[in-house]
Protein 1
Amino acid sequence: MTIYSNMLPFFALSILLCAGYLAYTYRGLRRSIFAGAAVGAVAGAVGPMLVMTPLNACTFEPEQDNIDYWFGVMLFGLGAFVLALAAQWISKYLLDKEGRSSLATDTTAGAFQANPLTPFLLLLPTIVILVIFLYYPLIETFRLSTLLVRLGAPRTAPRCVSNFTTYLEPDGFTMTALALVIGFFALGFVYRFLVRRDQYAFMQSFIMIAMFVMIAMFFDRVLEEDYRLVMFNTFFIAAAIVVGGLVLGLAIAYLAYQPIAGANLYRTLLIWPYAISPAISGIIFFVIFDPVSGIANHIIELFGGEGLEWIKDPWLARGTIIAASIWKTLGYNILFYIAGLQTVPKDLLEAAQIDGASPWQRFRNVVIPALSPITFFLIVTNITYAFFNIFGTIDFMTRGGPVGATSVSIYEIVQLGIRQKDLGRAAAQSLVLFVLVIGVTWFQFRTSGRRVTYGA
């Protein structure tokens, strides 16, 4: 990797910050702060190089655009941050005496004792499959995202990070304001390690506000206009699918769980939509909402109303995509909620009824908390579906229209990579979507995951 002169100040800052961060960690572990500073300094030097080496530090070349340069600075800092966190986790795992002693003394009768290499040999088939079908494609996608690649063309050309920055159009004022917000967020994060945890609580709300302001500014003032619409569609449609699908699924499952004649047949009929593909659900709902011959407009006209332009109006088109996707996932949600309702403790419901709780109070205070593990699992799986699996529904219903109102990120990726044959930009967008889904899932685990209760 080429080391440019404009990289040296960032290396110095990265080494200094990571050294201080790991020194603080080692002090909490009652270890030498100098050893922690040394580990942090190595992480601060190696982390950016792990990110910059595949790019050959092209973002720091003198002839690069301003936006490419600052995008490289962001990647530089991200590499240092991730490796510093990894070094902190490994240090705590290896040096925490209490954790190690508890593991050493916690023995269970019948525990499997074998050579340390045995677990890795047993996991070898899984590791091979993951490397071939997950890790290698991920690395190849990253490689393609830095190239000018046309589908079917034998030659490629390097593009550094232009496939990413082509979707960014920030102005000077926006970047300054964004830098101030990021700085405030970073100061709040550092403040967390300088005070006791109970004193840090009042800073959490300010840090969350700063984070949401930063995200809002990025989407509103930094993203290119067309791509901003794609991101809005992606998050809006995904949120509506997840919330609507879970609420409706729980409501129907709760009704279907009641003791009625023919309950098993009734529940089976509710679940069957999950067996069809997203493309078929798109075709079904296109037949229903087609403005010319659709069933929905015929029903409206029977009652004296005027037919709606379901597919041609932007908001109605989004609504039809959401409705088709909720209907597609409804059976899956109902299936898990019915299974979860069977685990709700009957004695708690009877005790609440004896105490005078109304049906709604029993549902809100007993049933919903008891279903929190199922709900948490369904949130994660519905998020995955809403971000990745609705291409077929959109392609058969609206083809991303009207005027891009239903073009979400996964649809845009397929359009770029397959139909426009621009594999480089499609790979870049797929990595952006991958990072976004990881971020949303991480946020879900950090917030809702803590409120999940297992057992009665």
Protein 2
Amino acid sequence: MIIKNLAICIVLQFSNQTFANDTLKIHSIHKESFSCTEHWDGQFKYVGDALGTDCVIGGWYEDEKRLFQRTYSDKGFRNEDWFGFKKEVLAPCDCTVSKTHINSVTNEPGVMTPGRASSITFRTRDGNFILLAHVRGIMVKEGDAVERGDPVAKVGNNGYSRNPHIHVGAWNAEGLPMQLQFDQSSLALSDREKGL
């Protein structure tokens, strides 16, 4: 009886949430290897944040016997310690730039400065929207047509951000968040990543 009631509660909990069931496959946002942490469903309610993901470029750490990937060198206290800082950010689709926003404040790693992040919003041919946030050095403007893989900005650390990374979010024309999937076939794998 307890398990049945629990199952009913779970169904009711999820039936109150509204989200698009669609998955949007996008081009890799970096040439280098990167890892992402997804915002779980219901964590954020704002369009662009809901079901979004935070992506960090990795670099290689090596000593005499070990080789593994990590996100920063030294202690990571400087933006320049982070392997992704100021690396190129690539257009996620063949689409149009619908909006840009610039936040000129650069955060120190570990310290978050409130305020809206620098961002680029793209509109796909299907009418979906993709947001890239915490960028710097934006290279496009509203109305520009871009092709997937075109450089559009650099990795920054601004707004509600504690370290250099790119937040990616997507939503459909009705404003419902979409699940993201990256086409990583374009990644330029190094010999180390290939295990050579």
